[in-house]
Amino acid sequence: MKNPLGNLMQQAQKMQEDFKKAQEEIAAMQVQGESGGGLVAIIMNGKREALKVTIDPSLVGDDRDMLEDLVAAAINDAVNKVAKMKKEKMSALTAGMPLPPGFQMPF
């Protein structure tokens, strides 16, 4: 006789391991956010930490307010890309699971 509760616990444990692995993979991923047609670029990891900022030399010495706006826009672009990447990765893991609408994973 099979133990349905035991099977369910094994499935839950495997899912937990899969989520942990996905979290680690996401944290290691990198995205590049850009603004100003690539004049400002930000490299960000999956933990939303900015790793590198690149500013085209043509912007140095120009209007400081514009440069600050472009840096902020590039950061926002990178943050949005990380969020999209996380959503895609997690949706692959939760495919077929009956989760309530709007349910957010705790990471």
TrEMBL record:
Its main location: cytoplasm. Keywords: Coiled coil, Cytoplasm, DNA-binding. Residues 5-32 form a coiled coil. It is found in: Cytoplasm, Nucleoid. The keyword Calcium does not apply. GO terms for molecular function: DNA binding. The keyword Hydrolase does not apply. Pfam families: YbaB_DNA_bd. GO terms for cellular component: bacterial nucleoid; cytosol. SUPFAM superfamilies: YbaB-like (SSF82607). Binds to DNA and alters its conformation. May be involved in regulation of gene expression, nucleoid organization and DNA protection. PANTHER family: NUCLEOID-ASSOCIATED PROTEIN YBAB. Belongs to the YbaB/EbfC family. Homodimer. HAMAP family: DNA_YbaB_EbfC. This is Nucleoid-associated protein AADEFJLK_03153. It comes from Methylovulum psychrotolerans.
